[in-house]
């Protein structure tokens, strides 16, 4: 199932990239015709009419390439659990809003990177020794 999701993400990225490349190619081709003077009137008309297709294709292409994922990441701040009371709290908080503790500023485990209590001898996530 995980490989199927990864394949879907790769396919969306490739389709989005193809749409962006197609859009840039079409715009540069039309601009080249407008500047060179070869069928200038027709090229200018197609450039204006083509913008109706190219702008949405460019926006959709960037969205398929992962633009929506970056927008979602900026909307909601990351949450983690307070080490003292196990309640959810914002990642950038200096103090826990539920118990007021600073326990979330505890040192991290060397083997897994999870925060650990200062007085614990072993990591509660991976069991590695804190010494």
From TrEMBL:
Residue ranges of every copy of the DZANK-type domain listed in the record: 82-127
Keywords linked to the UniProt accession: Membrane, Transmembrane, Transmembrane helix
Pfam families in alphabetical order: DZR
Record flagged with keyword Transmembrane: yes
Residue intervals passing through the bilayer: 12-36, 42-66
Entries under InterPro entries matching the protein: DZR (IPR025874)
Protein name from the UniProt record: Unannotated protein
Organism: freshwater metagenome
């Amino acid at each position: 199932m995980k490989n199927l999701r990864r394949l879907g993400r790769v396919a969306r990225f490739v389709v989005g990239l193809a749409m962006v490349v197609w859009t840039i190619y079409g715009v540069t081709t039309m601009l080249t015709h407008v500047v060179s003077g070869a069928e200038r009137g027709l090229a200018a008309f197609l450039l204006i009419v083509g913008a109706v297709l190219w702008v949405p294709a460019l926006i959709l292409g960037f969205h398929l390439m992962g633009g929506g994922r970056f927008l979602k990441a900026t909307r909601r701040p990351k949450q983690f659990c307070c080490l003292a009371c196990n309640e959810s709290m914002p990642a950038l908080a200096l103090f826990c809003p539920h118990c007021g503790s600073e326990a979330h500023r505890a040192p991290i485990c060397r083997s897994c990177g999870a925060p650990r209590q200062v007085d614990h001898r072993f990591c509660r996530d991976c069991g590695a020794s804190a010494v």
